[in-house]
Amino acid sequence: MRRDLRLDNVGRRYGIRGPWILRGVHLAVAPGTLTRVEGPNGTGKSTLLRLLAGLDAPTEGRITGRPRTAYVPERFPSALPFTPHGYLTHLGTIHGLSRRTATRAAGEWLDRFGAGAYARTPMAQLSKGSSQKVAVAQALLAEPELLVLDEAWTGLDAAARTELERAVAERTAAGGAVVFVDHDPSRLAGAPDITYRVRDGALERRTCETDAPAGGPQVVVEVQGPQGGRPPVDALGALVSAEEAAPGTYRLTVPASHSDVVLRTVLTARPPWHVVSVHPLDSRPDKDSRR
Fold first, then answer.
1. Nearest partner of 75 among 144, 122, 136, judged by Cα
2. pTM value?
3. How many helices (H) and strands (E) does the chain have?
4. In 3-state terms, what secondary structure has residue 267?
5. pLDDT by residue for the chain (291 residues), tens digit each?
6. For helices 158-173 and 259-267, what crossing angle results, to 10°?
7. Residue 239 phi, psi dihedral angles, 5° rounding
């Protein structure tokens, strides 16, 4: 994703005389950022995400800087004439992958989300949770520049929910952008770079404690990697400081609320970094904090 996706004075309504679902929306989604959208049911969150994903066109205003986008809805149409593996392989070839590469990638993503056991089962026979794993896998298959998640965690088991959070960290660390809605307020808590709230058809930036990451409790994450290398600090928007304690060893100071995302980012970096210890600022690590 090389530039911002921008919504300028965007409005959306259904029908010539229908009520405005959204109006006067200004929004910029930058590369490498994680954006959360909040609001009560029926306020237009899903409409906003469909506009971002390019599934709906604005009634007024304009959208510019369209990146390569993937979208995961809350309910994925499972009654498709494919098996999960066949579906992902087919999509991979549409995205420009060779048949061999698409076949391998399909298997890897299904295994990663715990769906390998029913890779050859007709999708019409899958449960809601199993179908949702396929929905997530299809969105991540081609490494999108913008990933749009509309209640995408709904129906996933605990392991798959964790894996999706890891995939979100990977996408932003790689320079992609992620925009998500989720009913669980603890989902990726402390991780978003920006949080917006949809209210009465308008979009408001929410001011919260995480907008000022230097305040509040902080954690020191000590990581170790190859000499001469640097941890992926550019992907850690909440980073307070990074100190090289020894060749190849860094002490990263981050807000406590962001520590899980920081850990995922360094562990999923290529090559991965080893986490030596995690401890509150101004306290000494002990054996229980070592990972």
1. 136
2. 0.74
3. 6, 13
4. helix
5. 677 899 999 999 998 889 999 999 999 999 999 999 999 888 899 999 999 999 999 999 999 999 999 999 888 777 788 999 999 999 999 988 899 999 999 999 999 999 999 999 999 999 999 999 999 999 999 899 999 999 999 999 999 998 999 899 889 888 899 999 999 888 887 778 899 999 889 999 875 444 444 456 788 888 888 776 777 765 555 567 888 888 888 888 877 766 766 777 777 777 778 888 888 887 555 544 444
6. 70
7. -60, 130
Distance, in Å, from the CA atom of 218 to the CA atom of 44, rounded to the nearest integer, reads 35
Q: What are the residue boundaries of the structural domains of the chain, listed by start?
A: 1-211, 212-289
Query: What are the structure tokens assigned to 229, written together?
Result: 């290398």
- Please give the Cα distance from 270 to 106 (Å, whole number): 21
Find out whether 262 and 252 touch, Cβ atoms under 8 Å: yes
Packing angle between helix 99-112 and helix 128-140, nearest 10 degrees?
130
Beta-bridge partners for 243: 251
Asked if residues 95 and 117 have their Cβ atoms less than 8 Å apart, the reply is no
List the CATH code of the domain at 1-211: 3.40.50.300
Q: Which residues contact 63 (CB under 8 A, 6 or more apart)?
A: 5, 6, 7, 8, 10, 51, 54
DSSP state of 111: H
Is the Cβ–Cβ distance between 261 and 186 less than 8 Å? no
Which residue shows structure tokens 């990581």?
223
Which three-class secondary structure state does DSSP give residue 159?
helix
SS3 46: helix
